[in-house]
Design brief:
The chain is mainly alpha-helical. It has one domain: Up-down Bundle (Growth Hormone, Chain: A), CATH 1.20.1250.20. About 80% of the residues lie in helices and about 0% in strands. The chain is built from 21 helices and no strands. Helix 8 packs antiparallel against helix 19 and helix 14 crosses helix 20. The longest helix has 30 residues. The two termini are about 25 Å apart.
């Protein structure tokens, strides 16, 4: 983030805490990719050779996650971000602990549904915390630091879950992240995280005044912004709708690659489990670089939608490379590029969102964009699974992601025109 001289740095600490919490939360949802290549798990759940049903494990989670993003906003507005996050942490941890005891595919779908409901509470509230705590000129980097937690999780998740499944059994890929998730209650319970800088016991008065003064510089523009009086007006906001499509493209590629790449590398590219896990982790190391570089770029480039245009065009080309390049090593290179460049979109979307809306509508707007994006992207793992099953090849599923990335790039062009006309 931008250098601070004498106004204090507690806001940086809070953002890092949110990123660590995001790691713990993301760990709970990321065990499915490894489970889909665990033969014992597939046999017990009756999923051998059932690619479409396998995709449903991610799709059901995403459907409930997306609905929760939107429907939990009134609860979040009533509780405030800190207490809403506390509720999500507890429900998510209990769902994961229950997951280790399930004995049927139907019961597992129920666990995934409850986990989706719990985790849907997170991002609207995290977005509001970034808005409340971080001055506008630092939000690109702040959003990237929070979001990097998801990338860091994917670096450790595949080797971790591969080891857990082999050494302890697939049930522990639910028990262990469930228990780890409970650690996220510590910063919430100790008020390391608070709704606003003004109600935090650890921040200096000087830094509080600095954050408030920086945010007040844009408050008049936010109050005067058109079409932001309520949910109906938000839904009619063209920029918000385009932002939702851009985020949809990001999410389809994120969920599609995260769900199917482990199986793709093992079955289509003949990697063993160990090398598969190592290569996937390497791809997410590139994603860490991508999201942090994207965050810094967002704080420097105007209009920010230019980043979305360039990134999603490159993602489409890289995903096409995964499908068509003959060399397994080449497929890994293109996978790393697709995952890494896709991450530039994440801080772009949320920084535009937090500048587009006043504070009292950020949770609602974030819930709409995240909810709609996740709702529509929820079907992407299922569609990919269906295309793989019908065609007998992974190429069709990857071409689906290429088309979605192109759609996101087109929406970014239209969003650029909206931003350019506003300036």
């Amino acid at each position: 983030m931008s250098k601070s001289t004498n106004q204090g740095k507690y806001r940086y600490t809070l953002i890092i805490i949110l990123s660590i919490m995001w790691v713990l939360v993301y760990l709970q949802r990321s065990n499915i990719g490894v489970l889909l290549v665990d033969q014992h798990f597939l046999e017990e759940m009756g999923l051998v050779g059932q690619a479409a049903r396998q995709g449903m494990l991610m799709t059901v989670f995403l459907l409930l996650y997306s609905l929760s993003n939107m429907l939990s906003v009134p609860i979040s507005n009533r509780l405030g971000p800190r207490r809403a996050l506390f509720l999500g942490v507890i429900i998510g941890a209990l769902a994961m602990l229950a997951g280790g005891w399930v004995a049927s595919f139907g019961a597992l779908l129920l666990v995934r549904a409850i986990l989706g409901l719990a985790q849907g509470i997170y991002y609207p509230n995290i977005s509001l915390l970034v808005k409340n705590w971080v001055p506008p000129q630092e939000r690109g980097t702040a959003n990237a630091v929070v979001g990097v937690g998801g990338c860091l999780t994917m670096i450790v998740a595949l080797p971790l879950y591969s080891w857990i499944n082999y050494q302890l059994g697939w049930e522990y890929s639910f028990f262990i992240p469930g228990l780890l998730g409970l650690l996220a209650v510590i910063p919430l319970g100790l008020h390391w995280i608070s709704d606003h800088p003004t109600d935090n016991p650890y921040i200096s008065t000087q830094e509080t005044q600095y954050i408030i003064s920086q945010n007040l510089k844009v408050q008049k523009m936010e109050v005067a912004a058109p079409a932001t009086n309520g949910v109906k007006e938000l839904l009619n906001n063209t920029s918000l709708r385009l932002l939702a499509v851009v985020y949809l493209a990001f999410l389809c590629n994120w969920w599609g690659l995260m769900t199917w790449m482990p199986q793709y590398l093992v079955q289509a590219r003949a990697f063993n489990m160990s090398s598969m896990a190592g290569n996937i982790s390497l791809a997410y190391v590139v994603a860490v670089v991508g999201i942090l570089a994207g965050g810094r770029l967002v704080d420097r480039v105007q209009p920010r939608s230019l980043i979305g245009i360039a990134a999603l065009c490159c993602v489409a080309l890289a995903t096409l490379g995964i499908a068509l390049v003959p060399s397994p090593t080449g497929a890994i290179v293109f996978l790393a590029l697709a995952v890494g460049i896709n991450e530039f979109v994440y801080p772009t979307v949320w920084s535009i969102m937090q500048s587009l809306l006043p504070a009292h509508l950020v949770a609602t707007g974030s819930g709409i964009v995240s909810g709609v994006g996740n709702l529509l992207s929820a079907i992407s793992p299922f569609i990919m699974g269906w295309l793989i099953q019908v065609s007998g090849s992974y190429v069709g599923g990857l071409l689906f992601l290429v088309a979605i990335a192109v759609l996101g790039a087109i929406s970014s062009v239209l969003l650029y025109r909206q931003e350019a006309s506003a300036h």
